[in-house]
Amino acid sequence: MIERTKIILIACAATFAVLSSSIGGINPYYYDILIGCGISIILAVGLNLVNGYTGQFSLGHAGFMAVGAYLASAMSLGIIIPYFEAPIWMPSAEALASDPSATLAWWEYILKATGLICGWLINALFWIHNSIVPLGAALPGWAKFLFALLYGGGIAALAGLTVGVPSLRLKGDYLAIVTLGFNEIIKVIIQNAEPVGASRGLGGMDQQTNFFWAFSFAALAVYVIWNIVHSTYGRGFLAVRDDEIAAEAMGINTTKYKVLAFVLAAFFAGIAGGLYAHFKQFIHPEGFNFMKSVDIVVMVILGGMGSMVGVCFAAVLLTVLPEILRWVAKIESLPQWAREIAENRMIIYSLILIILMLARPQGLFAGWIKKKPRSA
Amino acid sequence: MKRSTFLATVLALSISAYAQDEIIVGEFASLTGGSASFGQSSHKGTQLAIDELNAAGGLLGKKLRLITEDDQSLAGQPATIVRKLITQDKAIAILGEVASSKSLEAAPICQQSKIPMISPASTNPKVTEVGDYIFRICFIDPFQGTVMSKFALEKGYKKIALLTDVKQDYSVGLSEFFVKHYAANGGSIVKDQKYSTGDKDFKAQLTSIKTTKPDAIFVPGYYGEVALIAKQAKQLGIKAPLLGGDGWVGDSLLKVAGNSLDGSFFSSHFSSEDKTTAVQDFVAKYKAKYGQAPDDMGALGYDSAMILADAIKRAGTTESAKLREAIAATKDYKGITGAITLDEKRNASKSAVIMTIENAGYKFLQTVAP
Amino acid sequence: MSPQTIEFIQQLINGLSLGAIYALIALGYTMVFGVLRFINFAHGDLYMVGSFAGWMLFAAPEDESKTGVWASLSRSFAAIPPGMTKVLLALMLAMMICAALGILIEWLCYRPLRQRPRITVLITAIGVSLFLESFGQYIWGAAPKSFPTLIEDTAIEIPESWGSIASLTLLKGQIITFCTTLGLLAALTFIVLKTKIGMAMRALALNQTACSLVGVNVNFVVAFTFGLGSALAGAAGILTSIQQPSIDPLMGILPGLKAFVAAVLGGIGNLAGAVLGAFLLGIVETMVVGYISPTYRDAVAFAVLIFILLLRPSGLLGKNIREKV
Lengths: 376, 370, 325
Known about the structure:
The complex is a heterotrimer of chains A (376), B (370) and C (325). Helix content of chain A is 70%, strand content 1%. Chain A has helices at 2-22, 28-53, 61-77, 93-98, 106-137, 141-164, 172-191, 211-229, 235-242, 244-249, 254-280, 290-303, 308-329, 336-343, 345-359, and strands at 202-203, 282-283. In chain A, helix 2 (28-53) packs antiparallel against helix 11 (254-280), helix 3 packs across helix 11 and helix 13 (308-329) crosses helix 14 (336-343). Chain A is built from 15 helices and 2 strands. The longest helix of chain B is centred in the N-terminal third of the chain and has 20 residues, at 36-55. In chain B, the strands form 3 sheets. Chain B has a 7-stranded mixed β-sheet with strand order 7-6-8-9-10-14-15, sandwiched between helices. Chain C has 325 residues and is an all-alpha fold. Chain C is 70% helix and 1% strand. In chain C, helix 1 (3-36) packs antiparallel against helix 9 and helix 10 packs parallel to helix 12. Classes of the chains: A mainly alpha (376), B alpha/beta (370), C mainly alpha (325). Chains in contact: A-B, A-C, B-C. The A-C interface holds A 57, 89, 101, 166, 169-170, 172-174, 176-178, 180-182, 184-185, 188-189, 191-192, 245, 290, 294, 297, 301, 340-341, 344, 346-347, 349-354, 357-358, 361 and C 4, 38-39, 109, 112-113, 116, 118-124, 126-131, 133-135, 137-138, 253, 257, 260, 264, 292-293, 295-296, 298-299, 301-303, 305-306, 309-310, 313, 325.
């Protein structure tokens, strides 16, 4: 068994090496889809750790992707964020001087004080960013890119921590809506963040993502998460999923596992965001909305929550599917209604979701490729 | 490596060959999803133009074939489908998109593959800055913002309140350049309020605008929200007229707003009330085909295809470098949306019209030269 | 009164009227959750369907030559002069259509999943929501439609002699929505507390198995609850469209989420709580827009949700229930 795994691994590595050196020459359209598959795998595998293995339900994965995409881009573009001068959200001294009727009431003083403290805290975060950017700028080409990716992933992981810790008290539907809310909040913040283009979007990154980077990180994500979950330590994730109370009674620190799942998933989502930004060369806050999160959730569900191979397969399938539907919609021999339905991808997606839940809630590919021991 | 074999089969299936006696024009638009209402309009205009050209015998002795791909209003899609249109379908030129954020994603790819791209309605100045293969036929934000600011000053409006749509770069850009000109010429902005596409309730913003008693309110948004803003402003007893841009023109604007937009002004590309035969013809044909009056996106979509056709005729070939030259040399093309000249920055310089609304109907007011 | 005070009172009115709309949707959410313990994600889209039902029935087809039962029906409905009768008729029809659709959805998608984990049902609900949105875009198109006038939404005249209060604006649509919300709250409370089916609903919320053991027709009660909740969404759709007569297939997403926040804020499962939460959310949102920054409007709603879930997960009026092992 061990020998076979080794052979497979070596074969994969060899194929990978050959592919990454030669694949740049293929049709750019296919190449685009291929990179898209790699990024989808990273996203889906990461979310699978939270939604599949740990049994939580996050609906805000695109938010972490946004954090990674924007910060990695800010790093490679060398964007420095200007500090807030006045406490935010309050009238400036000039405005007050010109309009004497705008004197402050007691509650306005409280607001002002809160604004001041918030302003300092946010400025502190900006300071950290601003002092890391010059470090990255000093690095040579590929190292700078890697640094930008890791920086984006790292901050996304921090965001994951801030989401993960408070949402520990919640589960199921509540957690889903709260993560959705975080996604929405992140989007609104970016929409108002002038240094990264606000609602105009951010462009101008070099196209540094290639087959090698995308699939190296995809392989890394699969490797790390597979090994964590299948280690003795990682059995804790499954325990949390199967019966949280029993797990706690067994002495498993459920809090730690849930937070770890969130942080790891967010890290990989951040990396995926960075790869995405440096491939498409343009990012926009609307690109990381609720629908994007749903896309990733569908990948995990279709693949079968908690099935690594299934999820990878589903990620590839759902990245290629729109292109297949595009092709189907152009077949003139098909009846008009079929072509129109094929053009409306969301109708098909939603029907897949409903039918899958009714007929095969464990996912399309779960238990299909490899039988895994499952607890009752 | 199951993945790659699977992928290969799928992709092999999708290889399709088109006959060489056709000129392939690629178009990408948001036909479904959040911004579908604009994408559908511009696509209808483009399709109308292509059908018309074909009915007249095509170009260079060949029929035109429009291949439209839907980007589902999703980020990430434009890059993929423009790559498809260029490498798979061998499109000689790309038309699209309305939203600047989508055009900005596609532009670098068109530039790298040296395929001309004409955007019908992306107003963000950055779009054409991507490279010399990227064109647009609409005004850019600085021009339109300045036009409305000049108009407001002429009208003697001293105090203006802003109501900007923060989700639309179009609206943000227009506000920015309006303020730049207006404030530099002695006007004062008394309130800077904001909303987001999809909002339905604007009473909070309008109430806080009302207390500043502006002479007019500048609302550079799209018709869906503008109609509701106008209605709610009237309900709250705001008498100040609204000012706006080309985003106002839409099928449901006056139906929803009723009389509440009377006395308001907006700048636009063309007036469907325009009595010239070309415009009337276009409006009639559009209505006959789609059963609704064209909005600006429809007219711009139509013009984008027509300008491309004009350039192909002049170039006498579809070879990309020559075609690019021909598009860049477009001068005084009499389009539905005015006489279009492409300047050295590949932006359209054309006149705007200022329209007013009376008794729930549009009325042409004046033409402003660039 | 100073202009600032007048502005503040006007914002309060705006907030209450926004809250009344959220309240109507939140009532349906809370109803279904109270009995079935699951979030019907598609509830916001049923609200959209309610609006479109009104549009389909009351807007005469633009194409004069169009014939058929539907066209003549909508023509005769459109001919009714605007007024309260038209509003009531529209309300009733939209509520019936939405109730039927709600029961159908429950029967097709949720009933087979009743014994499955809640996540499975939640995912199905997301699927239903996406389906209604994309299917709506497919059949009605994505461009906003203008909703027919059911009643002239004019301001109530306040006599000048009342002084500065006269500059306040109070709209008919706002008053209708506000009164309907309170009326429906009373009616629902009556149904839940005083009728036999209400007793069955409360029993079902406590223990489904025990319910069927003592002879309660579980399927019927669940379908009834769903129908009632969906009818409320339909009513919200019509009443909102009177005030905001521009409708589109994606209009249900944000109000749906906001109403959910409102329901959680008030204590999900608690009818009065949903209304209270909705009014609070409406006021907070309006005040943030009017006095702080409109761009953070949506973020504020979610921030409220996160805070309430962290500080008091059972909501303002909800009972704190410990999880049983």
